[in-house]
## 1
Amino acid sequence: MRNARQPHRTQTYNATVIVTIDGVAASGKSSVASGVARALHVPYVSSGLLYRAAARAALNAGLPLTDEAALTAHLRAHPLRLDARADGNRAYQGDTDLTPHLHTDEVDDAVSAVAALPGVRAWIDDHLRSLPAPFVAEGRDMGTNVFPHATAKFYLTASPRVRAQRRVNERDADIDAIETALRERDRRDARQSQPAPDAHLIDTGPLTLQGVIDLILQRVQAAHA
Ligand SMILES: Nc1ncnc2c1ncn2[C@@H]1O[C@H](COP(=O)(O)OP(=O)(O)O)[C@@H](O)[C@H]1O
Ligand SMILES: Nc1ccn([C@@H]2O[C@H](COP(=O)(O)OP(=O)(O)O)[C@@H](O)[C@H]2O)c(=O)n1
């Protein structure tokens, strides 16, 4: 039997190929997207990092998180930029690298409010669509709204407990508090977090990280055959 990853070594992905990986909070999107992108030799694009950067920018500027006019004006005057590096995306505002300040409890709490503003979403959508394909894009609405024409679409889930357990391993916090915060963010993000009708749904709970990556690579290969 052929190794699941073998075909990708020789395959060339053309400039139209976009793979989307959406899902709920802490379902494994960035780790999986990074692994799939590495196997395909293309960059991955973390849309969530841009939303986190928008929230961080609002907090830094002291803007109310629900003031759409002020926030969109701020983004126009001080644009964000995503550097879709294969070894980990980075988000900048001007020359300032915001990346080290984006995975904090403060940003976790603020980001859904900022992401609910249509003006902010439009600004980020435009930025994402300006990035040159091929790439793997991960977030909430990559397969539904931003790249509806994607080559292959995936939607990751896992139970809140499993996701909280994974976050415990990354952040020094109580598992119950993490699970409560994840459930709350899922609730606030529900509007833009629906799976595309043509997305493959994957429950990552019973799978290893590499198992999820391999499953996606097999399906991308099939979609591209
Ligand atoms: N089967 C799995 N699928 C995806 N991620 C997993 C799996 N098992 C463990 N993880 C871990 O879960 C954590 C959360 O993944 P992450 O990529 O940050 O999720 P997201 O981008 O959805 O927030 C990471 O530390 C990742 O390595
Ligand atoms: N395409 C996207 C990606 C993220 N987001 C928002 O950005 C936040 C952070 O996204 P993320 O992907 O970094 O979050 P995690 O799932 O990694 O915790 C989410 O909670 C959403 O509010 C969004 O609205 N649309």
Note: Residues 1-10 have pLDDT under 50 and may be disordered.
## 2
Amino acid sequence: MDYAVEMLDIRKEFPGIVANDDITLRLKRGEIHALLGENGAGKSTLMGILFGMYQADRGMIKVSGKEVRIGNPNVATKLGIGMVHQHFKLVSTFTVTENIILGSETRKGLVLDVKTASKRIEQLSQRYGLNVDPHAKIEDISVGMQQRVEILKMLYRDAEVLILDEPTAVLTPQEILDLGIIMKNLIGEGKSIILITHKLKEIKANAHRCTVIRRGKTIGTVDVASTSELVMAEMMVGRSVTFKVDKKAASPGEIVLQVDSLSVNNNKKCLALNNFSLEVRAGEIVGIAGVDGNGQSELVEAIAGLRKPESGSVRLKGEEITGLSVRSRIHRGIGHIPEDRQKRGLVLDYTIAENMVLEVYHREPHSKRGILNKAAIKQYAERIIASFDVRSGQGASSIVRSLSGGNQQKAIIGREIELNPDLLIAVQPTRGLDVGSIEYIHRRLVEQRDKGKAVLLISLELDEILNLSDRIAVLNQGERIGVVNASETNENEIGMMMAGVTAEGGGEA
Ligand SMILES: Nc1ncnc2c1ncn2[C@@H]1O[C@H](COP(=O)(O)OP(=O)(O)OP(=O)(O)O)[C@@H](O)[C@H]1O
């Protein structure tokens, strides 16, 4: 068999946890091989070992049949292994070309040979259908395009094996389809791809085989075409799962959030949200659907107090809060699961315990007369950790940076739900979560609703919006295209509205 890479019986331990427990993964040349596993299962660790970022405690790696030692990422690069990380590693003020050649520059005499590099990048871009302008600045191009720059960076270094770590988590639906085509182009030219993803649909659409790991152990490798999504999901979490959210009809009460004629600028001082009005009542989940970048972030930030609107007002339980600070909004009952867990959601170098009290450390029992009560904080954090199944090596004292992405997300959601807010703003709450955790988080959001709380859900996942929401507001270019009852609409109608086709109907409450 022609294997591009074989990872055999790989073991890696971190303090308090066996992240990889004799994992075996064999990547055939020319295949797209999905790596599936629940949050914290050990996928990133395994790929980190293949890319030379970590050293395995035990086990063997073969590249094209030959045993190798990958001491650092430079060795991996020389062996033809490239990786696109979950969080891109690009310099935003540099051009595409400058980013790609960074670290492998060639010179003509003393001068950097940018011209030859640009030409080669253009050729590569064309050959693989990447459509990247080598002269564009990173800060001016979309996230999807930035990802392609990362792919180009690997191709420029002659990578034969490409590792993509949750590549679609940050992409729009169209960009996801485009990436599928790009991956096919890549394997068409003989490259091999390891695709880390939680999205079973994407595995079905793109991958040939799939290796499933659970709690650091290999569960098996399956042929994707002949294995159902449900079977893969069950292999991953070790129990049966449902994809449907089980909820009864909502019984909305009084208005909790009232947004009136809100207009908000974006960072470039352009109007991103235009004259937007919406109300969310106690006991209902209102979803905001829209293609990324249509004013969702600005709306959320204006409600949470992170951005000043140009005009309009925000009321919470009848009280005008438009000018209030973030802290006083939290105090009045707003919880916020932010879009970017690492920038806004957590302080990565703090422990889980410290992160769990970021919004309440100044209150009893967490502190008294300015002195923190560490024991009370630990206890509080441990309760959240247990109830949201946040997995880490050292419990409440683990540094958040060492947690897997999905476990970081679960910690944030736990923290915000623990506040028991009257209004919970949940932005992409299940981004990067495995199906088992998604099922759990969805249940908790519905539980908040059933307790009589208001939930505002912003998500790019149309399935999530349709499954969870009672009403759905659709945003297009900063404007409210319409509000529909979730039970009376479908994916097609919402999709049309997201594209700007007006269909105010279905009944605004
Ligand atoms: N540098 C580190 N130090 C300590 N523990 C770590 C480190 N890196 C990972 N871990 C732990 O190892 C386990 C596996 O983490 P890993 O990031 O490999 O999971 P994952 O499958 O990629 O998860 P996710 O889907 O949530 O990103 C986790 O429990 C994590 O907390």
Note: The two ends are 62 Å apart (CA to CA).
